[in-house]
Amino acid sequence: MVDIKEMFRSEIKKNSVFKNKNIVSPHYIPDILPFRDDQIKEIILNLAPALQGKKINNLFLYGKTGTGKTSTIKVVLAKMEELAKERTDCKNIVTTYINCRNHNTKYRIILKHINDLYKHDYVGYSSSFVYDKLTEYVRKNKIGLIIVLDEIDLIKDVDDTVYALTRANDELTEGSISIVGVSNNVMFKQKLDMRTKSSLCEKELVFPPYNANELTKILQDRVQEGFNENCVEDSAIGLASAYAAQESGDARTAILLLLRAGEIADENKETKITEIDVRNAKKKVEKDILLNMVSTLPEQLQYVLFAITRLTKSKNQTTLGPNSEGILHSGEVYNEYYRIAKIQGKSPVSLKWFKQYLEELELYGMIATTISGKGVRGTTTLIKLGADAGILNSILEPKISI
Ligand SMILES: Nc1ncnc2c1ncn2[C@@H]1O[C@H](COP(=O)(O)OP(=O)(O)O)[C@@H](O)[C@H]1O
Ligand SMILES: [Mg+2]
Fold first, then answer.
1. Residues 53, 202: one domain?
2. For atom 8 of ligand 1, which residue has the closest CA?
3. Is the Cβ atom of 201 under 6 angstroms away from ligand 1?
4. What is the longest distance spanned by two Cα atoms in the chain?
């Protein structure tokens, strides 16, 4: 009798370069994270006293997208919780993880916590009720609660949130609450109240971008587990690493490039992923990444970006010659932004805030700016779009009606 299941399995395998596609997903978190030893060490140093029942500092992790912040903190906290359970000489630790994209107010964050901790739905209860419920749980169970607020910059009332959680910790005589804030936005800290800044950023950790060699190693590990043997050419890995290193040093981009290249190879019934597949994957990945990035931008920043995109697009179409580089003056961008915000029925921000927005977009790598030399009109900020105007327009146009 033939092994039918096995035959099915080998049939599926035969038609795909993937052995286990999940491993090549950007959501997959490997147990071992190379090149993050220093960050792991620092996190442990900071959190370890909680295992002895001591209060610990809040922690703030930041760095660009794809530098391993989410993976690192999740891996470290899972191990910490495991250890606390295994050992009788360790205090009770409970760690929670929240992506603030989905829970973006103080109320929602605290509500999510008590719902999970009590396994009961408290929606509709007042803000002070849910707050008291949370502190009560920590006190009664004498736990060290460590709350990860990932993408913390997306919380609407972030100052209030940090303040409430810090105050809760200060009031507790038994148990403790501490926060690990995580942000892809390097500018975020500057927007906080002084008080929030000093309590959230008691200890800060930067996650630097990866270089091409580091990305190659990270990809090699994934290739080994995620793809069938001999299905990925070395040069394809090299190219994916080089692209990702050049763009931003972002492991997510590198992994997505391989994933899409694998899908392209499968579609074309190729048995091996080549450089050509990676090159073709790049266009798809660019759109994926821009889409993801744009969706995290606050509304007003989306308007500014849309203004830049529209102007760049129209310049590309109308200007030829030396001035066709798509370089914009901040004045014209501000006017266009102003117009767009008005049409949306929103009040445009002042020029000063607008300049802040430009800085933020630059940090995300969406634009590059320089100050022009002294000209007829004095100095002005020159702006150049860092992403493809066509792709960006196709993302923003359906979101913002004008
Ligand atoms: N050092 C590393 N080793 C292996 N994979 C990594 C490493 N750093 C990041 N990754 C992978 O890259 C992707 C993005 O990482 P993530 O932790 O989500 O970054 P961030 O939160 O900084 O945006 C994930 O699939 C993650 O597993
Ligand atoms: Mg993250």
1. yes
2. 68
3. no
4. 87
